[in-house]
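Contributing new records

If you add data, match the layout below exactly. Sequence lines come first and carry their own label; structure lines follow with theirs. Keep one chain per record. Anything else will be rejected by the validation script.
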Amino acid sequence: MGETWKKFGSDIRLDRFGDVIFTDDGDLEVINGGALVAQDLRTEVMLIPGSCFWAPSFGRGLEDALQGPDSFDVEALLRTAALGDERVFFDSIRTKRLDDGSYLLSFRLFEDVEPIELYFDLKDRYVD
């Protein structure tokens, strides 16, 4: 997977709260490959639509949707976000509500065998 960044690009690494991560030297930490795809999906799911002026339709607004009056299917939102990413193998997408109330989204990239797993703990606003 040494050439994966050529397919998926690279970006600035964000921590689980969406803040920029710096190296010990003070440089911005860079991310690529499957970790980048996971970060992109995590950001899309949590971001409120319209909050990025350069991409107003980007975002799924999971946190806002949970505050609304209607019942809401978190698993459907997670699946939809993963299905919308062309880097994700659509047949590999799995979602599950865990016993502690958090949610799991797992998926594979086209050339990967091992799944990537994202956990969404909505009551603590935590994504890992």
